[in-house]
Amino acid sequence: MNSSDKFSSIFAPYIRSYIKEKELQDLKIERYRSFLLDFDRFLSKTAKNDLLINSEDIKRWADTRINDKKTTLYARFCIISNFCRYMGSLGHECYVPLHPRRSFESTITTVFTHSQIHNIFDACDNMVTKTRCPKSMLFVIPALIRTLYSTGIRIGEALTIMNKDIDFKRNVLVINDTKNNRCRIAPINESLEKVLKQYIKYRDKLPICDIDHPDSYLFVSTLGKSCSHIPVYKYFVSILEKCEIYGSFGTNNPSLHSIRHTTAVHSLVKLTGAGKDLYCSLPLLSVFLGHKSVIGTESYVRLTQEMYPEVLKLDMHTTDQIFADLNLKLQKNYEKEDN
């Protein structure tokens, strides 16, 4: 059953119409459904019988979200605030909660060294299955991991690539299902081209109908089905263990998304090492990664400074102050919009 049919509070028809409106705006509505379903359950438990959401309701709901990360709680407040505004536009005045203050502090993430990346590739190539599994995705892993590193795309974006999205004539991948809902292209370099062509050659030998059809997925299991995130994550954990790569003290544990961070840092090092100006490189890297703005990319400057100070040759205090001033300005703008 679709989650949109599980709404049960007095606000259920309004939530459905609100979600439908967002869907017509061509927005990804999975998070809207998930967050509003949780809010609807809360409203059902409070047995509200009038179309009014007051500040006390919001406070009681927020008190139940003790396990949410700050970023998740911020996202929930954004959606619920917008829903309350929607109710107001229909003539049902509701309290519009202010968003919690958004933190612009950079999280410390894992970035693999070039040596570790080579070890990861070797581990991918030498993985073997210990059991017979008719829907194994093991043969996908070497090409998939190299695609993530070479292009910097997210794992969710990679797993939704269709055969028609790969263009060897122009050497690009067309990424349609993106986090920011914006179609973009990712370049295919010479080494990745060889890997993908080899992968496709062996994949097409699977006795599966239409496996090479333009509308079929590029990365598939041995049954020809699209790959799931969870098995890929499990394979990658095994690869990290085999390479003896663990999160260092004070950093997040390495994950598949760490490959994207690594690509960003290595790309910035390559650009600056080739004589490109840092502040000219940032917009290029921002477009390459599919960020909405260069603000989402600037954190990689600090990571690069910490790992390759001899390459950037920048004064840490000076650049930190530049970005501190910029983040302060952005934070004030967010607070002004919220008020």
TrEMBL record:
Q: DNA-binding: present as a keyword of the record? A: yes
* Swiss-Prot/TrEMBL keywords: DNA recombination, DNA-binding
Pfam families associated with the record: Phage_integrase (PF00589)
What is an example of a GO molecular function annotated in this UniProt entry?
DNA binding
**Superkingdom of origin organism:** Bacteria
The UniProt record lists the Tyr recombinase domain at: 107-313
The family database entries (InterPro entries) matched by this protein are listed as: DNA_brk_join_enz (IPR011010), Integrase-like_cat_sf (IPR013762), Integrase_catalytic (IPR002104), Tyrosine_recombinase_XerCD (IPR050090)
BP-aspect Gene Ontology terms: DNA integration; DNA recombination
**Family the entry assigns:** Belongs to the 'phage' integrase family.
Q: What is this protein called?
A: Nicotinate-nucleotide pyrophosphorylase
What is the organism field in this record? Flavobacterium pectinovorum
Q: What is the lineage of its organism?
A: Bacteria, Pseudomonadati, Bacteroidota, Flavobacteriia, Flavobacteriales
